[in-house]
Structures
1.
Amino acid sequence: MDRDTAAKRMADLRQRIRRHDYLYYVEAAPEISDSAYDRLFRELRDLEAAFPELVPEDSPTRRVAGQPLSGFVSRPHRVPMLSLDNTYSEAELREFDARVDRWLGAGIPVEYVVEPKIDGVSLSLRYEDGRLVQALTRGNGREGDVVTANVRTIRSIPLRLRCAAPPAVFEARGEVFMSREEFARLNQAREEAGETPFANPRNATAGSLKLLDPREVAGRPLDAVFYGHGEIVGLTVERQTDLLQLFREYGLKSPEFTQTATGIEEVLAAVRRLAELRSGFAYEIDGAVVKINEFELRERLGATARAPRWAIAYKYAAEKARTRLRDITVQVGRTGALTPVAELEPVGLAGSTISRATLHNFDEIERKDIRLGDLVEIEKAGEVIPAVVSVVLEARTGHERPVQRPVSCPVCRGPVRRGRDEVVIRCVNPECPAQVRERLRHFAARGAMDIETLGEAVVNLLVDEGLVATPADLYELGPREFNRIANLPGLGFKSAQNLQAAIEKSKQNPPWRLLFGLGIRHVGAKAAQILMQHFGSIDVLMNASEEELTQVPEIGPIMAESIAAFFRNDANRRQIERLRRAGVRFETGPRTSSGAAGQASLFMGKTVVLTGTLAGMTRDAAKQKLVELGANVTGSVSAKTDFLIAGDSPGSKLQKARALGVTILSEADFLREIGRDRDVAAPPQPVLGL
Ligand code: IVH
């Protein structure tokens, strides 16, 4: 293709991709399938590779661009980013309205806009001639950190405004957030990968925005909504409702619920209504913001050094309870992380009885000056995990005892250490029984090697008996050991036989399960799947250099370093060799028992959701099969879903899939695709006689 034709085609592709990005990420109403989108994207990427000099900065292919930073630079805000005064009662809101009325001297009801107060991280975007040139955090309000490279990875933020004649300068201000659902998913993945979970979506958002490597940020599910402006040149905006409308036109998201209200009674009604709707929002809302609509009136009122006089926040009361801190226990995780847990006098909170709450880490205990015996305030952080938020200092009697940081592991008594730049204290003895148990539990867990019957209780028994300490030990258990297992309390012949069969069966698992099960720090299930899809076998992965690892999409330098370090370790290498000798599967690729083996799978590279009950196989077996065939199996239906496999009583996922035009397969269709109706794999037989 000649240069001119290529340039035209690329411009056309970019425009189409931008439009589809907007429909998908902002409107949540895609018009084309993921595969059609991927085709456009691939064509553009290939053309850009052939004509690199024709690639503009704001091409949709260049969202993740730039090298990791060594730190953040500060830049001034052209218009300061103010804060808001807070109110906590309707009476205070009435006072605000009375003040506004007095200052304006209008004597007529003022028109306000009521918006949700999004509990995220505030951000200012600067567009020049419609192109995103800078993203700044709020910082101290006068200057903030430049986070442009990270913000460019947020797919709902346009790199170019959707507008034929954009103003010379347009600064949009809003909030970056993580939806509750995505936050829960991220935290689960972090826990599975041996990383410390975030306390709440806001911390997760702030932490993500401050990552130094934009490639890592691209993997964090960030989103943003806009509700304010900074400098605007070349355009006059007269009121908040116009600004919100402008955001929508430009392709920037604005809050879902915004309501105009004339006079305080209407304001209060809107604030109450928002409180009712609050739990239905995808993101956390900690209050309502009431703002004067007309910018000209705002100017007449002005601002104090801290906050404008024309707006106020009304904070909803968090669900809190007070109770006594009886004790602090310390849990030792798979990676040796010591996590303090508050043991509380049971108390009711938001419909459940709470007797334990997270304290995150020992720095936090010190910062909040939490002492044993204190009366503490607990809150449902992120409305999911209860956490101790503060101490009721007035209730101190003087008998409270300070909390000691552990100087040794509470389980093995071995030494503990605090890592560089880490708040977490870790037990450094890899043979610590708590770590040994947790590692085995993780290895056998459903998401990993899925060794049925090898749950927490059985793992504990086997470890206490000295029968196993590492995953490889499981595969080396012989008839004598299984006889001993059959005689353990609570077990018996049948249980031992089942365990043996389950261990045997797990050898055939796709190797990503093994990789995930090994518990390499930072390597979650998803990363394990990506890695195995890329390298094809544990051996190739094991010998990959850090550099080769970072070439894999979505694998950042921290993960690469962790993987390389794991496989450099002699003890780990010995484990791997023993697992190989035991016959655990190391290679991806079709298994001979599959009827569809050798054929290109319909599911390769597709996003698939399972719903309802399958008659012929368990959900987990179906999922495993799909993953082996190259599918990405997810839990909820979205516009990205390619197939929904619907069993009996499919429920709301089916409705949603229909609404989104997702291809729906019955169980019979699915079985036909995977060849199970022709070739049902025989159930594995125990090979070791008891
Ligand atoms: S307006 C000059 N509107 O709340 C007034 N702020 O506590 C600027 N926030 O720094 C703020 N949702 O980060 C406004 N709908 C909303 C908001 C909102 C969340 C944040 C914002 C601000 C903080 C003040």
Note: Residues 433-582 form a domain with the DNA polymerase; domain 1 fold (CATH 1.10.150.20).
2.
Amino acid sequence: MRAPGESAIGEVLVSAEEVQRRVAELGEQISRDYAGRSLLLIGVLKGAVFFLSDLMRFIDIPVEVDFMAVASYGSATDSSGVVRILKDLDAAIEDRDVLIVEDIVDSGLTLQYLMRNLGSRNPRTLEVCALLTKPERRKVDLPTRYVGFEIPNRFVVGYGLDYAERHRNLPFVAVLER
Ligand code: 5GP
């Protein structure tokens, strides 16, 4: 039994084994695509940290990491596209091959803002790698070069994704029952 307002972990949409297998595939694909170059991964705090650190271990070309933290104005479940930078990158990205690593693309508004912001800093290339995407929710058309899994329009937690800062440590992705 759950008290009103409490949440519980529901259906598992992506198992721990599926996550690990797909992360390995993505790392290998990225290594092939960027062969002979070096890559800068930009993680969006905090959710992407878990995905990024696993992904990096499957990338066998020279790779560096940097992080950004952003806050999106809007309700807890709907981002507005108005984004505030809480922590910017440590270093310039001019002429670098840059890959933004995101946990999930929902409306796409946060990523659209990041693509514009980082794009204006003149990287050599700028692409996106997202673990999850919810195509039904997309409000803007975005080129996401690498995607782990397409999921239905449900609120999910685990593998970095939180609800009120909890559940990030789950090794799988599951629906949050509220
Ligand atoms: P967007 O700007 O694409 O609408 O929102 C992206 C951000 O919303 C993600 O980086 C994530 O922080 C949050 N988000 C979107 N969908 C979910 C979800 O199903 N679960 C969790 N925990 N966060 C989500």
Note: The first helix runs from residue 16 to 33.
